[in-house]
């Protein structure tokens, strides 16, 4: 029997795809069989009573910019319920808790809580620069959050989260070739209601979350929601006299105020929101990988580090939006206006240790630190403005449509700083990047009820995108560009994206669908000048041209066993032309933009939810993603191998040396941070206690297979698979108005490296540790 983590042959790698096709062929028959079974006479009145007592509610989504039953939408969708969000977010976790909790979704960050990077079906962006674009769009209350620093707004007081997989380039505004993650806040209403939740946990954790809303008049209502989280440092710095004596603590607050006006033929929803976070930047740990493997070094202690750099992360964001709707007979007119701004400074010790090897024995560590590296990135000036007008029809006939205009403008200023850890952390370099991005689009989409069973949909979007970029060096770093600039880049492109799909109703409970869609991401520009000259091939100012994707998917969505179970299954394949990639780290800690000739991906997604008994609800999610870079000549620098030095790591791709730097050919590699397998399981068992009370147990588990951290493959920089579990045990009473619960996150205390820095030593960073605590919730 082969080892479970052995590298499969090419023939073996095709088997999951064949399995997916076989499952897809069998599912309609299985669903039909289940429906026949549920129409058969009940075995007993007790069984019939139980079947009726535990049924699944309809899941409503806005994937097509209309409220619809998720079963009727021809898109691979996962919707995360509010209770599931409450459980997964226990313990002060940030938005990364969704990673692996939804099929084909991964989220990671080299900034910690401040800068999440999203991946759907393997498509994402590992770029750590503050103007990085991502192929996964994040939409919060119908407003796109383009800056990476806006994407981490805390998850609280939400109606739902929707993950739309595959290109969504027709109806949504910015950079959606991989998909969209949508967050919808709980809205104000005329009914007075709210909740308050307070918790305490390990490592000095304290959490609060609450909301209250109701009528202000017969036309106006409002809702105020807020959250606060604090955790003490749980990692000790063992280096005497270091600037920081502990790490991994944070202090974060966020609030949202909404006002809703409901008039005759008009509705207006107004939103103000703000976030403030300060704490530890991502903690890098020097030489934690054993050379030649991805094992952690013997004696590794996750609770201790020894580092001489300054470490902190400060972030403040705020924004406002106005969502207006007019009823105009057979039409609805929408206006969505959004404004967002962010200010941040993130300072970290990139080498993850102390001293430098050239100071002599005993003056650096842990392991070999060739030279000290300490940097900071700041966002002193940022603003984003978006405006959308959309008109939709509301005919009684078989055909309806929607169309509109979209405008986007963003101004960004980025500070890049270098510091000398060996000279009391003095500033030793400063560069500035500025980018102005302006885009507009016109779009239209229609749906036609072709027959009683068949509904067809299609859409098209024209986009024009312009960027003006400049970078200047104000203070030269020791190994970077001299003082100079500005070095400028201008891009101006346009694109037409489209999609076409159909949904066929097999019976009242089973739909099948097929979809083909295209997506587009505008050119990207980077200019990290502190570690390379402006025109250097391995750094400086770089540009990636547009990428375009075409995706094909087909699937089935079914309600089973008198709505006691729900099934969704999709198979897909996509091709990306000119995919934007980023070579990070290498020999000089730069970020170099590249375009691959082609990237392919194929796989499947499964979502299953079922009441196994009246009191036991189980959900199962699973996905397989097989990605491959196809570019025979594309090469990237590897792990510190510059100026004639040997690589720090053990590359497994073919390598060659050019001008003293070792490069690896990456043709055939999987995309970075793209797990082939993602599985997740939840189970909730509740037992009624007395009048209006319930004792419950909720457990959740996720599995993510191994991923490459970089574009090239190396033994040290390929993660191990990771399994994490959560448990929540509690009692609620007064028909759910009050709840007291004990919880644990990462209850097995699994420790895995989830990312790395490769230009100086074998530096890595870890997943979140085990957290245990207690929460009390009151609803009114």
Fold-level CATH name: Maltoporin, Chain A
* Poorly predicted regions: 1-52
CATH H-level name... which superfamily?
TonB-dependent receptor, beta-barrel domain
| Rg on CA atoms, Å | 26 Å
- Any idea of the CATH class? Mainly Beta
Shape: globular
Number of helices: 3
Distance between the amino and carboxyl termini? 58 Å
How does the major sheet shape up? 22 strands, antiparallel, barrel
Number of distinct beta strands: 43
Q: Which architecture does the CATH hierarchy give at level 2? A: Beta Barrel
Mean pLDDT: 90
Helix residue percentage: under 10%
Domain count: 1
Helix and strand content put the structural class at mainly beta
Measured by DSSP, the beta-strand proportion falls in over 45%
Can you put this structure into words, describing what you see?
The protein is mainly β and 780 residues long. It has one domain (10-779): TonB-dependent receptor, beta-barrel domain (Maltoporin, Chain A). The protein has a 22-stranded antiparallel beta barrel. The protein has a 5-stranded mixed β-sheet with strand order 3-8-9-6-7. Strands 14-13-17 form a 3-stranded mixed β-sheet, with no helix packed on it. A hairpin with a 5-residue loop joins strand 23 (399-420) and strand 24 (426-449).
Key structural traits:
single chain, 780 residues, mainly beta, five-stranded mixed sheet, globular, disordered N terminus
Short description:
6% of the residues lie in helices and 55% in strands. With 780 residues, the chain is mostly beta strands. It has a single domain, classed as TonB-dependent receptor, beta-barrel domain (Maltoporin, Chain A, Beta Barrel), CATH 2.40.170.
